[in-house]
Write a structure and sequence with these properties.
With 647 residues, the protein is α+β, with helices and mostly antiparallel strands. It folds into 5 domains: 3-102 and 336-415, no CATH class; 148-238, SH3 type barrels (Roll), CATH 2.30.30; 245-315, 2-Layer Sandwich (Alpha-Beta Plaits); 326-333 and 567-646, Alpha-Beta Plaits; 480-561, SH3 type barrels (Roll), CATH 2.30.30. 33% of the residues lie in helices and 25% in strands. The protein has 19 helices and 27 strands. Strand 20 and strand 21 form a beta hairpin. Helix 12 packs across helix 13 and helix 14 (432-448) runs antiparallel to helix 15 (452-465).
Length: 647
């Protein structure tokens, strides 16, 4: 093992030992840093030639030990564990972790519920980082939800009705103290809706803009039904005093059908030259403007005059402003699991498997080399108590078919809770964030599949955590059942389809293969016989299904494994400079990378395969964004001119 690899494995050993040790302590019997430094032993990595030996987890000067200990505590907290500090009589401090700060109550799904849980996580999950690998037999694909360890303390605070404090960046990065009321998910994007501590103001906080792990405060709070109703009605464009506005646009007959599906209460009337006039009522001026911008040049705004004036001014500012040199920007990559998170996922998967899991099964689920699985899991089996004072069992046993060849045997790792004290519950394998993911994934699955087990699984989850999560998803998908039936029955269908930035529809023949959910929209992966290529289609843009028939020829294999986010993995690279109030437009882009600028703006890097998409994105951003990539410095300009000419 290389010295670099040995350092990584040594850190893994130290972190898992520390987190299990602190969980075995208590408020009445906390453990001090001095005791940990003196007595905590781990296996030496890399293993010396004479065989493994125990060494102190923390060695070096007092300063080096203290810094390493603080870094380790920070790493543990970043996974959602709340490390409590207990003042001692001698003036020192002890530490402990309440397992309930990270782990939710155990939930037992029957066979049918386990089946739909796996189905839901394939449809709409966090991918390899989330709960998928705990429940499913194969490796996880790309996820459709924003993963965050921050869900863990937030859900716990919601369950206990306790206040939260966290750092949050909007126009500036500031500390916020709030009383959490609900988690609302809009188009796949989660927000914490909370009352500002000490006030009656209800606000929404996007999880992706939290910049520190939320801390659950000891203070509890009371909330009345009126405040809860306000929280449930909150929207990203929330206004304290909504002022409805009636909007009239003209469009083509084809685009009319799409709008009437999106806005069922809209009124339509045919006009001359194949045009249609449509009237729609919106809750606010901003909601109306957002609709017009998303429709772009596919509609012509007729009234009201105030909205036309606002739109005209908006169009003048599309993709205009100063930008820094793109080469000077330093972007952080997408979040990845660290060694502690990876180890805990392996452990929790074993906890969930009644018959245990073999090395080969764990290697497949987590895309790891079998030797690496053995290295991690054997460590959990062999963890020893510290100085006979505290035990920190991982509750894992190893069973070998061939002990003489243990290094290559496809051994089974099994959970063993026989050492759990009488009256105590077995450790839960589910963290609070896992229950959040399961709840959202099951709710999304309920739109696609009709199965009573989905609702009974949701009921079990919400009984454990109460009903704090609400989902606002796309519902204008009347042909979803027919598309799903084509997937299940291996059929080919001929569809009339309106692409994302086009006005005219086109006829395609497709062979649907898989349905997934991303950003609140249902997408289907299909082989398009019209284009002789694999394509991804949004179900709400299918105008009609013209014909269906069995598939008679075998299509070529799909070479794109993670097709759900492939839009973010191919095409031209683009860097945009974004004002804080327009971040929400760019945050859903798959695989986007961010960095903060000194002037309070952000730079975001992403990829596009369709320049029309970028034109529409910049149109919606208005003065809030400008492109720093020279090739796309004029993105959106021509589109803005065309719309202005229609006014």
């Amino acid at each position: 093992m290389s010295s670099i690899r040995g350092e990584v494995e040594g850190r893994r050993e130290r972190l898992i030992a520390l987190v299990l040790l602190l969980q075995s302590a208590s408020k009445a019997q906390p453990i001090t840093q001095e005791e940990i430094v003196r007595d905590l032993l781990i296996d030496e990595y890399p293993v010396p030639s004479k065989g493994p030996r125990k060494i102190r987890a923390y060695e070096g000067s007092d300063t080096a030990v203290r810094q390493k200990f603080e870094r380790d505590k920070a790493s543990i907290r970043e996974l959602g564990f709340q490390i409590e500090t207990v003042p001692l009589d001698d003036g020192g401090a002890g530490y402990w972790i309440d397992p309930q700060s990270a782990y939710a109550p155990s939930i037992y799904f029957d066979e049918e519920e386990s089946r739909v849980v796996r189905l839901a996580l394939r449809l709409c999950g966090f991918g390899a980082t989330g709960a998928f690998s705990i429940f499913s037999e194969g490796p996880a694909g790309d996820g459709g939800l924003e993963f965050s360890n921050y869900y863990t303390p937030v859900l716990r605070a919601l369950n206990l009705r306790r206040a939260l404090v966290f750092d949050y960046r909007s126009s500036a990065n500031k500390s916020r103290t709030v009383e959490p009321l609900a988690i609302e998910v809009f188009h796949g994007v989660p927000y914490l809706v909370a009352r500002v501590h000490g006030t009656e103001e209800v606000k929404g906080y996007r999880f992706s803009r939290m910049t520190s792990m939320p801390v659950v405060l000891p203070d509890t709070f009371e909330v009345d039904d009126t405040t809860l109703d306000i929280a449930k009605s909150w929207r990203p464009e929330y206004s304290k005093s909504p002022t409805p506005i009636d909007v009239v646009v003209t469009t083509t007959e084809n685009y009319r059908d799409l709008l009437l599906r999106q806005f069922p209460h809209a009124l339509a009337a045919s006009k001359k030259a194949g045009l249609v006039e449509i009237g729609i009522t919106f809750d606010s001026q901003w909601a109306a403007l957002r609709f017009v911008l998303e429709a772009a040049d596919r509609v012509t705004l007729k009234s009201p005059k105030s909205l036309k004036l606002e739109l005209a001014q908006w169009l003048k500012e599309v993709n205009r402003g100063k930008t820094p040199d793109a080469e000077d920007l330093k972007f952080s990559g997408p979040p990845t699991n660290d060694v502690l998170g990876q180890t805990l996922q392996l452990l929790h998967a074993v906890y969930m498997a009644e018959d245990g899991l073999r090395v080969s099964e764990l290697a497949s689920r987590f895309s790891l080399d079998p030797a690496h699985v053995r290295l991690i899991m054997d460590r959990l089996v062999s963890l020893q108590p510290m100085g006979d004072r505290l035990g920190y069992p991982a509750h894992v046993l190893k069973e070998c078919d061939d002990w003489d060849n243990e290094a290559t045997d496809d051994s089974t790792y099994r959970a063993d809770f026989s050492d759990t004290e009488l009256g105590n519950d077995e450790p839960s394998p589910l963290m609070w964030r896992d229950l959040f993911e399961l709840n959202i994934a099951l709710r999304e699955a309920s739109r696609v599949y009709t199965d009573s087990a989905i609702f009974s699984a949701i009921e079990k989850i919400e009984k454990a955590i109460q009903s704090f999560v609400h989902v606002d998803s796309a519902t204008n998908e009347p042909l979803l059942n027919e598309v799903r039936a084509a997937v299940e029955n291996d059929e080919q269908i001929k569809i009339e389809y309106t692409p994302g930035v086009e006005e005219a529809s086109e006829v395609r023949s497709i062979e649907p293969r898989e349905i997934r959910v991303l950003n609140g929209h249902t997408l289907v992966r299909a082989y398009c016989t019209s284009r002789q290529a694999w394509r991804t289609f949004r179900v709400d843009r299918i105008n009609s299904i013209l014909a269906e028939s069995p598939v008679t020829e075998e299509s070529p294999p799909d070479t794109v494994a993670n097709w759900l986010t492939q839009v973010g993995e191919e095409g031209d690279e683009v860097i945009a400079i974004v004002e804080p109030y327009r971040r929400w437009l760019f945050e859903p882009l798959p695989n986007a990378q961010w960095c903060a600028l000194d002037d309070g703006r952000y730079a975001v890097k992403f990829r596009i395969s369709d320049e029309g998409f970028l034109d529409n994105l910049m149109l919606q951003a208005g003065a809030g964004a400008v492109i720093a990539t020279p090739k796309f410095a004029k993105a959106g300009h021509e589109l803005a001119k065309r719309i202005a000419a229609l006014l």
